[in-house]
Structure formats: structure tokens, C-alpha cells
Amino acid sequence: MKHTYARCKDWMQESCIDSYDAINCNAAAGFCTQVFMEPYERTGMNPYDMSKKCEGDIADTLCYPVTK
Q1: For residue 20, what are the domain limits?
Q2: Residues near 40 by Cβ (< 8 Å), separated by ≥ 6?
Q3: Overall domain count for the chain
Q4: Measuring CA to CA, which residue among 6, 26, 4, 7 is closest to residue 15?
């Protein structure tokens, strides 16, 4: 992850911000999500409050059952 951070930052900056290129921006976002978000999501921790476990399925409740 440490080695990938600079690549994601630069790729997102170039493809999504400096000059928007839909194909490259989507590729960068997909790659960076896979590298950084998926490992965290597998922990079951709440991405909005890292001190708590996610309550319910994140796709269904966003970790807060009241949102269902």
C-alpha cells in the first residue's frame, strides 16, 4: 500500500482533476479502491468511525441499521 499511494495520487490527479479523461479516471479509481478500500472493508470495521465495528452489511445499511 505504501508503494502504491504515490501512483494512485498521481494517476487520480492527472486523469480525474488536471484533465478529465473518463476511461483513465475510472481505471485509476477502480485500481485505487481495490488497493486501499477493499482490504479495510474486509476487516468489518466502520469506514465512518474506525473505532467501531460495522453494524449490519455496509451495502445494505452503511454500517448504521437506522438507514435501512
Answers
A1: 2-67
A2: 47
A3: 1
A4: 26
